[in-house]
């Protein structure tokens, strides 16, 4: 007989409201009455105190709002069963105990503990990913954050150059490219840009190994046609801002490249690497991102539907009486959704089956984001099967793809 059907086997349950500096712990008995409450600091001593309290009261199951971090690692290492209950669920669960629904850390810890007690059969225990996957996830997300910082700083540089040196905007393809940053390092003011002639610009392009120095004439014409920037002493003063932004972007580019090298090493050493690198247009970074966000704990997604729902690729259906509304799914893992949508949005350029699904969705009147989600849902069924079987994606064995190829042959 399982624990949830045999009251004699049930133990007190606990809830932990996680915070950055301290954690609220609540323990409830079999009757739902709170038997222990405490606040522990987010320190090694505090975590030991928390675990000691759980052991002394006989707790085996703990509810918490987040699936990772030192607290969760300590709970799992202690052999406790951890249930992750999302913050938006807690928000609604508060109303089971009162109409106000106000946020309070100690009360939320009680709600978590009591939810584990009453809804044990509805919850799925947390299955941790392997250390290799956790490390890859950390590296992939760090790269993503640095790219966001690079985009923000590039926008700041563009806004700065609109006043100081407009001619550089659009001179090369990207404002934060290596060639643009090199140009701004050598020619940070309008006065120095005025010194350039087509011949001098061509010589400089040769010196920095620009792949097409013959474009010097067109580039010089672009500089002449642009609105003139700041000149004189004011330009010299503002050049310090330009130099600071260029230095920041240069550093960000270097660190992003360093992380990408680490991502490649970590991915190729991962047992599931072949599953994700075999997908069309996956590459290294995209495959690593998919693997990092899906993870390698197969028990977390027992069905492809469980994966598609968490990734936000399945619509949310609401029905009341004769009214049925199908809408966008908001309660999802946003990191997972971003990784899946990024992959699906590019896959239809390389896979005929994906292209057929995407085009048929557009023909039904769906916009690009909606069509991409439809394609993502279909891909997740394929990925889930490959992932569960630990086998690479094989276009020859993909019957839906072969059917499309046979039709177009």
TrEMBL record:
Coiled-coil portions: none
Domain Transposase IS110-like N-terminal per the UniProt entry, residue ranges: 14-166
InterPro entries registered for this protein in UniProt: Transp_IS110-like_N (IPR002525), Transpos_IS110 (IPR047650), Transposase_20 (IPR003346)
GO BP, sorted A to Z: DNA transposition
Domain Transposase IS116/IS110/IS902 C-terminal: 274-359
GO molecular function, one term: transposase activity
NCBIfam families: transpos_IS110 (NF033542)
UniProt name for this protein: Transposase
Source species of the chain: Micromonospora purpureochromogenes
